[in-house]
UniProtKB/TrEMBL annotation:
<dbReference type="InterPro" id="IPR036291">
    <property type="entry name" value="NAD(P)-bd_dom_sf"/>
</dbReference>
<dbReference type="InterPro" id="IPR023401">
    <property type="entry name" value="ODC_N"/>
</dbReference>
<dbReference type="InterPro" id="IPR054860">
    <property type="entry name" value="BhcD-like"/>
</dbReference>
<dbReference type="Pfam" id="PF02423">
    <property type="entry name" value="OCD_Mu_crystall"/>
</dbReference>
<dbReference type="InterPro" id="IPR003462">
    <property type="entry name" value="ODC_Mu_crystall"/>
</dbReference>
<protein>
    <submittedName>
        <fullName>Ornithine cyclodeaminase family protein</fullName>
    </submittedName>
</protein>
Length: 319
């Protein structure tokens, strides 16, 4: 098997590569050629979370798992709190083919998913980008969003306002004016990306204008919540995978409250393949519930491995 360490990933997979890989696997899911296995997620105590996301992509010839989690004590040890590693296997034989550092790849595949949703569902004339959240992942989401629409400016809100300076600096790098705003002013945004670890809704229905596209990316576990459930009742809801959306995604709350039925949620892959038309009018609110699926991880990891093979990088070991 080939070991591709974290330090090599930035040179092997670009944000554009991640966009293409994730779009292809969402389409494969829509065609029934790829599917995710049930997510395993365990609380280990003292805030530590560990889990497995896995799947099989028959079209892309990938079988594998991302193992990883969140270990809040790591920072004090001088290592990052988020830990993840992707393992790939030959789907015919089950032999391990690769072990790949999953940190940057997770950030890239998550940013790619929200950018694909913006590309496919936001109005073409979207000019104002709203960011809710300003942690590690927010900068990746902002950069990826700016690649798919010609935004004039960015507005941002975060529970911890001191973190917004870093996001403002990224907007400035992209040549976009940035303003920290109260949540009420998110009504000015044409596209809103939410990327927080919030346990309760921050963004309310009243904060969102008709015609907005929302990419809700932070809720990937039971009990997390970023937006008011009524918003999902009012919006056309899309997701990476319906089973995850209703169990660990943002839709879990609207479904539990009886405001949304699972049958009303559309896989984003259906829009990519043309099976669903996507946005139907300029006034429609579209909402992408991005829960993060194992197949996204396998798609970007496989790309890293292909590039590493071509360039003779990484380490080959017999297991
Ligand atoms: P981070 O710890 O770096 O940042 C957390 C963010 O949440 C910060 O903006 C913080 O101010 C905000 N926050 C914390 N508590 C809050 C609260 N009570 N109310 C509102 N905001 C609060 O984390 P990150 O790496 O930026 O990830 C953000 C979220 O995205 C996490 O929940 C993470 O699990 C999730 N995530 C999802 C995917 C996916 O595929 N959907 C992938 C990666 C990360």
């Amino acid at each position: 098997m080939r070991i591709v360490p974290e330090a090599l990933i930035a040179g092997l997979v670009s944000p554009e590569d991640a966009f293409a890989a994730v779009e292809a696997v969402f389409a494969a899911m829509s065609r029934g050629e790829a599917y995710n296995f049930d997510v395993v997620r365990e609380a280990l105590g003292e805030g530590r979370q560990y889990g497995f996301k896995s799947g099989l992509d028959r079209a892309g010839g990938q079988l594998g798992v991302k193992a990883g989690g969140y270990f809040p004590g790591n920072a004090a040890r001088g290592i990052i709190n988020h830990q993840s590693t992707v393992f790939l296997f030959d789907p015919e034989t089950g032999r391990p083919t690769a072990m790949v550092g999953g940190g940057l790849l997770t950030a890239l595949r998550t940013a790619a998913a929200s950018a694909i949703s913006i590309d496919r569902l936001a109005r073409r004339d979207a000019r104002v980008l709203g960011m809710v959240g300003a942690g590690h992942q927010a900068g990746f989401q902002l950069r990826a969003a700016a690649r798919v629409r010609q935004f004039d400016r960015v507005i941002g809100w975060n529970l911890h306002p001191e973190m917004l300076d870093r996001l403002g600096a990224i907007a400035a790098e992209l040549g976009l004016p940035f303003e920290a705003v109260p949540l009420e002013r998110m009504a000015e945004a044409d596209v809103i990306v939410t990327i927080t670890s919030s346990p309760a809704a921050s963004l309310l229905e009243a904060h969102v204008s008709p015609g907005t596209h929302l990419a809700c990316m932070g809720t990937d576990t039971k009990g997390k919540q970023e937006v008011e459930p009524a918003l999902l009742g009012r919006a056309s809801v899309f997701t990476d995978e319906i089973a995850q959306s209703v169990s660990i995604g943002e839709a879990q709350h609207a479904v539990a409250a009886g405001l949304l039925d699972a049958t009303a949620i559309t896989p984003l892959g259906d829009v990519i393949t043309g099976a669903h038309p996507g946005r139907r009018s300029g006034d429609e609110i579209t909402l992408f519930d991005g829960t993060g699926v194992g197949l996204q991880d396998l798609a970007v990891a496989a790309m890293a491995v292909r590039r590493a093979e071509e360039r003779g990088q990484g380490m080959v070991v017999e297991v």
